[in-house]
Amino acid sequence: MNWFYFSFILAVIGPVLYHVIQKVTPATVDPFVSLSISYITALSICIVGLIARPPATGLRESIRQLNWTSLLLGVSIIMVEIGYMMLYRSGWSLTSGSLACTAVGTVLLVTLGVTLFHEPVTFQKIAGVVLCLCGLALINR
After folding, report:
1. How far apart are CA 118 and CA 53, in angstroms?
2. 73-105, pLDDT tens digit by residue?
3. What Cα–Cα distance (Å) separates residue 55 from each residue in 52, 60, 66?
């Protein structure tokens, strides 16, 4: 299997499904109840994945190698989940809500990439940031 293309397809289809499902989740359902069931499902899939494809270094060694990033990733995932659920429940449309968040997020990620990770500043990145900001302005008009 070509992981280069497969990972790209997952990274495109996953968020599309995610946003559509977030949008159609009943507004009457408590967000934490909904997310609890979602995470039980995700945990079950991860356990099946670990059984089907155990870590090359072994489970204990893999757990030993973990650091603060796994915990903070968990916090950030919950922030995304609750953020989008409340975004859609507060009236944002599927078309403008996710696009606005993505545009602002892209600008922030380019800035962080350049400042924290010393990624090169290119004309294409600057043009992309400008286009994101123009798109954000158009969406909010």
Report:
1. 35
2. 999 999 999 999 999 999 999 888 888 888 888
3. 10, 9, 13
